[in-house]
Design brief:
Blueprint (H helix, E strand, L loop, with lengths): L4 E9 L2 E6 L2 E7 L1 H10 L5 E5 L11 H10 L4 E4 L5 H9 L4 E4 L1 H5 L2 H10 L4 E10 L2 E6 L4 E6 H10 L4 E6 L11 H10 L4 E4 L5 H9 L5 E4 L1 H4 L5 H10 L7
Parallel strand pairs: 1-4, 1-12, 4-5, 5-6, 6-7, 7-10, 10-11, 11-12
Antiparallel strand pairs: 1-2, 2-3, 7-8, 8-9
Helix pairs in contact: 1-2
């Protein structure tokens, strides 16, 4: 059985790690390079680094920060934000990233997924999907959750897989930053519908939430930010709790 992954997420704005609630009300959470090294040294399985305002501000991801983070960590490292071309991905992978995450650009140009998968391999292409429920239907949102689309989460996820994505990072905007638990029903449906790994994001508040998302949500990995950044949960303690609940993890 494959081990479940714990992934701290570093949301970056103006060179600093930030964290908000429901994608707004951002507060400072520290230096991303220092945090990345701490997580790498204390048992995180992977890191995800998202330049959260790159798409909105129409600029590219901070390459220098990627270089510095890559120097400090010895675990897989995903980079996202403002990525819209094969050239963007080529630069990031050469700068030290192991994977890239695309979101808005994938919706606007779905064939980009095919192109990236063909050139770099599906194993390093993560498609991030931000969605919230509107009248009971999960709708995909773009530009850091600011722009609603008519895309249905589950339909879009299936298309993403067919186009060659290696995994999906699903963030429930309704749960983001609330610390009330992950969107496990939606995650379980994604896991049932798809054959690629699903990363759960949005809602982690305590260790039981991680247990629940692996058992009920059938997630392959769980991502969190504030509970790690502000030391509410230590990764080594979390992994021990997961192991105690018969969930396979790398200790």
């Amino acid at each position: 059985m494959l081990t479940k992954r714990i992934i701290p997420c570093l949301d970056i704005k103006n060179g600093r790690t930030v964290k908000g609630v429901n994608f707004v009300s951002l507060r400072d959470a520290g230096d991303p390079v220092e945090l990345a090294k701490i997580y790498s040294d204390t048992g995180a399985d992977e890191l995800i680094f998202l330049d959260i305002s790159a798409t909105e501000e129409r600029r590219k991801t901070l390459i220098n920060l990627v270089l510095h983070v890559a120097e400090k960590v010895n675990i897989p490292f995903t980079v996202g934000g403002g990525i819209s071309s094969v050239e963007d991905v080529d630069i990031l992978l050469k700068s030290g990233a192991d994977k890239v995450s695309i979101n808005s650009s994938a919706v606007k140009s779905p064939n980009l997924i095919n192109q990236l998968s063909a050139k770099f391999g599906s194993q390093c292409i993560v498609v991030a999907i931000d969605a919230k429920q509107i009248d009971g239907i999960w709708k995909v949102h773009l530009v850091g959750g600011k722009v609603a689309t008519e895309l249905n989460l589950f339909d879009w996820a299936k298309e993403v897989e067919q186009r060659g994505a290696g995994e999906i990072l699903f963030t429930s905007m309704d749960h983001d930053g609330t610390k009330n638990g992950f969107a496990n029903k939606a995650l379980a449906k994604l896991s049932k519908d798809l054959n690629i790994p699903i990363i759960a994001s949005g809602g982690a508040g305590n260790m039981q939430h991680f247990v629940d998302t692996f058992k009920e949500g059938k997630a392959d990995a769980a991502l969190a930010a504030s509970v790690f950044h502000f030391k509410e949960i230590e990764i080594k303690d979390l992994k021990q709790e997961l192991k105690n609940n018969n969930i396979p993890v790398r200790i």
